[in-house]
Amino acid sequence: MLSYLLLYCLHRFNGERSLAAVYHLLTGKKSAQTLQDSKWFQLERVFGIYKTLSLGELEQAAMQLLQNQWIVSVDERSYVLTEAGKEALHEWLVSARFFTHLNGLLYDTVDRLFWYRLSLTVQTLSNLVHRRQFIPIHRHEATLTWVKTYLLSKNLHELAETLHKELHTICSALSEEEATILTLKLTSFTRIGWTNEQIAAFLQKDRLYVQLTFQNVLHYMMKRAERESKQFPILHDMIKNLVKPVSLTLSAQKTYDWLMKGKTVKEIARIRHLKPSTIEDHIVEIAANVRDFSITPFVAEDTKRKIIEAATRLQTRQLKKIRDAVGDEISYFEIRLVLAKAGESSVS
C-alpha cells in the first residue's frame, strides 16, 4: 500500500523533488517548502496523511519500486516512473476510492479533533440514554470539555435520535466497506470501537488502507457538515470553528497581516527585523495558500504570461530551467509567485 502511495507522489513530483520531500509531505511537515510543494504539484490530498511514517519505511518502499522496475533514479534520491510504473499506478488509482474526498492539507489535525468530538459524543449519548456508567474513550481535555458543555444544553434523547439520522444519511452515501469501517470505529454502550489493526484483520485489508479509507470518510463527513448545516446540524456543530480557511506558518501569517495593512516588502522586513528575501519567501507561501491573494502588485501581466508559457512548454516547475528560458530580467521571486498560483483556475 505504501509503495503505491509513494508511486503517486513520485509521479506528481516527476523527478523534481527528492524522497525526503515525499517524506515531509506525507508526515505533514509545516515548512514553507512542503506547503508549497503540496500546492505546486497538486498533492494537497496526501499532505500529512501518514504522520507515523518513518524515513526508513519510505526508503524500503522505494527499493521495492526499483526492484519492480516501476521507477528509475534520475538524481540523488529523486525518481521518475517507468511505463510499467505508470500503468501500475493507473490501475491502482481506479480502485483507490479513498482519494475521492481526502484533503490532508485542509483537514490536517482537524480530522482528529472532529473524530474525538464525534466518537465521544456517540459513546456518551449511548451510555446516558441506556443509563450506563462508562469510562470516556478519549482523555483529550478540550474534547471532554466541549462534549460536556454541548450535551448540557440539549435534550439527550432528541439529540441521540437526530445524530443517528445524520449518521445514517452519511452511511447511506458511502460504500458498504466505508460504512462498515466507520461503524466499527464507533463506541457504544455495548462495545468498544475497533482499532485500524482490528478492522484490517477483519476485512483482510492492509492497515494503511483502512486508515486512509477512514480518513476519507471523515473528510467527506466534514465537507458535507460544513456545506449542509441544516441537514447535519449536530455534525456541523462539531466541525464549526475547527477548520481554518488558510494554512500558513506562524511567521508567514504575521507577514500576511502586515501586507493586509498595506505595508511593502521593505517596510515589513524593517518592522520584523528580517531580510527582504525572507519576506518574499512568506509572500510565496501566502500566494500558494490564500486563494484570494493577488500577486499583481509583485508580478507584471507580461511576466506572468512568459513564466506560465515556459513552465507549460518545458513541463517543469524547476526554477532554474524556467529562469534560463525566460531570461535573467525575471527574478526567481516572480517565478515562484506565478508557480504558487499556477494551480488555480486563473492567476491574478
Short description, anyone?
The chain is mostly helical and 348 residues long.
Write the layout of secondary structure elements.
Blueprint (H helix, E strand, L loop, with lengths): L1 H12 L5 H9 L4 H9 L14 H13 L3 E5 L2 E4 L1 H13 L8 H4 L2 H20 L11 H12 L3 H17 L3 H10 L10 H8 L3 H21 L5 H7 L10 H11 L4 H8 L3 H14 L11 H14 L4 H8 L5 H10 L7
Antiparallel strand pairs: 1-2
List keywords for this structure.
single chain, 348 residues, mainly alpha, two-stranded antiparallel ribbon, 19 helices, globular
Can you give a write-up of this model?
The chain is mostly helical and 348 residues long. Helices cover 63% and strands 3% of the residues. The protein is built from 19 helices and 2 strands. A two-stranded antiparallel ribbon has the order 1-2. A hairpin with a 2-residue loop joins strand 1 and strand 2. Helix 7 packs across helix 9 and helix 17 packs across helix 18. The model has no long low-confidence stretch (mean pLDDT 92).
